[in-house]
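ok so heres the complex, two chains, lmk if somethin looks off
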Amino acid sequence: MQRLFLAFAAGGLFGSGLFLSGMTDTAKVQGWLDVFGNWDPTLAFVMGGAIIPMAIAWAFTKGRKPLAGGSFPAPPEPKLGRNLILGSVLFGVGWGLAGLCPGPAVASLTYGGWPHWVFFVAMIAGMAFAPSFRATMDRAIPAE
Amino acid sequence: MPSDWLWGLGGGLLIGLGGAVYLLGNGRVMGASGIIGGLVDGSGRSTWAERVVFLAGVFLLPLLLLPTMAPVDTHATSNVAVLIAAGLCVGVGTRLANGCTSGHGVCGISRLSLRGITATVFYILAGGLTVVFFRHLLGVI
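and the predicted structre for the whole thing:
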């Protein structure tokens, strides 16, 4: 029960932050990426603002256990493989095209109108298709 | 608006606070694509309740804030082909890279993860080139 309450609180803070910062406004995200157009620096402030509490939280994990039990995630292997690079490039292309990424896509479903639903459904389809895409890639170019 | 950066910073702090609660509370990295993706492909079956409740928070809280704000215009394109292509790229890409803006960007950079920093550099570069190409050269978006 405690885990669920904490997850709901985390999601609520995340969703309100995305809403208030303007990250569910596709014009703001594309404005940040549009360095040759009317550049909008807002996203840098959002990222900077989000990294501060997170950095403090990571420092706080040392020698402690999560409130609801279990253990903290170990740092990932610092391995930069094909999947990380190719996946990030693909994600960047989609992010630039629509101005939406997974968090804001969920947060904006209630007020973004039908285009946000079309994007959301396509994103879910992409996520469902990802394992077979990965398998096809593995056959074509062996991973890492 | 001249105060946009202030809203950005304040909203950003809330996003980071959400990540901090998820990490210190449940011991998990707050990555939107991982939380959704685990429900879609079944890899997160054992933690489904936590994921659903997290997403309910993401979805419902803006709804509560909405009445206090001026009408929200999200400026999304109404070009269905662009929306579908973009959604597919984001869906496949974030699962392949095992993270998106929240996971690699917010949670990864803040722990100085090489993977998080590299992923962020690549998706911002790809996003920038995409906007330049499709907006300034093709005029599609």
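quick notes: Residues 1-140 of chain A form one domain. thats all i got rn
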